[in-house]
């Protein structure tokens, strides 16, 4: 109820109207969003597969995390900014949408798991025996895949 | 026109009709298509950045390419299959969409760029495998690949806004 009236208010704001009126803005922001998702997926794929023991096992885990974790953070900032613009432009499509909130919850879970289980690896190159890296690696990849599906389904619900 | 007949025949296929009629089919295939594209771009980006001169998680360019390219190819095949299914659901509209036509051209150009790289700079990779930055030919291939795949993603997203027939 509160969310609905907030969405209606947001929809009427000049900035929201402008984003919709300039027709190239939404596709351009969505394209940027998609490119940033590709950066997260590519980085997470190599990093998590390394930690799952599938890829680049001849390189220390710390080296691989050092290469890809900063790119995940950068891409997440871009995703947050472009995602916010998309919500401002089309509040009804997102704020009242269960799939949208599911996606947000999953992104938060992925963010917290990365922060708790991946960031410490930056400072402990080579040694990650204390952390159950493998199951979390597969869980992380699964969460990112579900996030992508949720993202596309927002447009249809 | 034979092309129009063929496109109409694709549109009339039972599988095309079922994608149009089942409300969840199109978004599901589209989600798989997005997943495949992010895997293609995400993995190729790592290789391209190495070719342009940014260090990767390993020094050897040759090993990096052999390590990641299988993932790119599997994801590309998934993107082509899902893309063909999405196309079939509305073949005439896609075929007449300028962004779709440009997207196919950009994919062809990216393929040509890759073929040129593999028949030239990649042939001599043993000479520059550990070099940072790599030779100009490799850097040019990397830049072109980055630009073309970015274009592919942007054009792909634009199709969703310019396609004539929406159901």
UniProtKB/TrEMBL annotation, chain A:
Chain ranges passing through the membrane: 34-56, 68-88, 100-117, 137-155
Its source organism is Novosphingobium hassiacum
Which InterPro entries does the UniProt entry name for this protein?
Answer: DUF6644
Where does the secretion signal sit in this chain? none
Domain (DUF6644) spans 29-156
* Record-given protein name: DUF6644 domain-containing protein
- Origin organism lineage: Bacteria, Pseudomonadati, Pseudomonadota, Alphaproteobacteria, Sphingomonadales
Arranged from A to Z, the UniProt key words for this protein are: Membrane, Transmembrane, Transmembrane helix
Question: Is Thylakoid one of the keywords UniProt gives this record?
Answer: no
Asked whether the UniProt record includes Transmembrane helix among its keywords, one would answer yes
Automatic annotation (TrEMBL), chain B:
Say which domain of life the source belongs to.
Answer: Bacteria
Q: Which positions, given as ranges, span the membrane?
A: 32-56, 68-88, 100-119, 140-159
Its keywords, alphabetically, are:
Membrane, Transmembrane, Transmembrane helix
What is the name of this protein? DUF2214 family protein
